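User: We ran a pulldown and think these components assemble together. Before we commit to crystallization trials, I'd like a predicted model of the whole complex to look at. Sequences follow.
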Amino acid sequence: SQTIHQWPATLVQPVGSPLSLECTVEGTSNPNLYWYRQAAGRGLQLLFYSVGIGQISSEVPQNLSASRPQDRQFILSSKKLLLSDSGFYLCACRGGHGEKLFFGSGTQLSVL
Amino acid sequence: AQSVTQLGSHVSVSEGALVLLRCNYSSSVPPYLFWYVQYPNQGLQLLLKYTSAATLVKGINGFEAEFKKSETSFHLTKPSAHMSDAAEYFCAVSDVGTGGFKTIFGAGTRLFVKA
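Assistant: Here's a predicted model for the assembly, 227 residues in total across the polymer chains.
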């Protein structure tokens, strides 16, 4: 089964600083990859998803961007962080013919 | 567009009591439905899924859910709560969009289990 590596586990960044969160996947090829953000009391919001290298779909307009430079690598970025970017970011993967999502352990981002 | 509504952001039960977490969905096509569980500071784990086979789905840790098309519901139940069930539970719906397979989550229900 798929294994998702996501780092760092926690991150504290000042407003206006850049961001790069990385997610890599093992155990599958050509997966669908996803970035979700979880804010307190608001469930999981789908931010981006990708069906292949260089293919990114954005679900909501925001201060963030995503890239997929390799088949099993998915990166979430920002040029200038806002306070509202704080939250728990989860990378997820769907591989093969399954509908199930596999999740990474998440990154708790605090923008101060 | 798909959407998921979870009734009750917090549910509290006594150990040994019935657990009922409610979920209603909106989908223009026959949906795939899921329940995930999240323990503190962790990612999500799949509890169970409905993919148009049996309407009563059994998952891990004694949980089950019943798909009711007429009510557009997919409520999660467990006959007897255990302290280890305390966690946050998310209902989700998936379908195939123009960009691929998307999963949309509800806002979550935090389950508290009292001794």
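The longest strand of chain B covers residues 87-97. That may be worth checking against your pulldown data before setting up trials.

User: Thanks, that helps.
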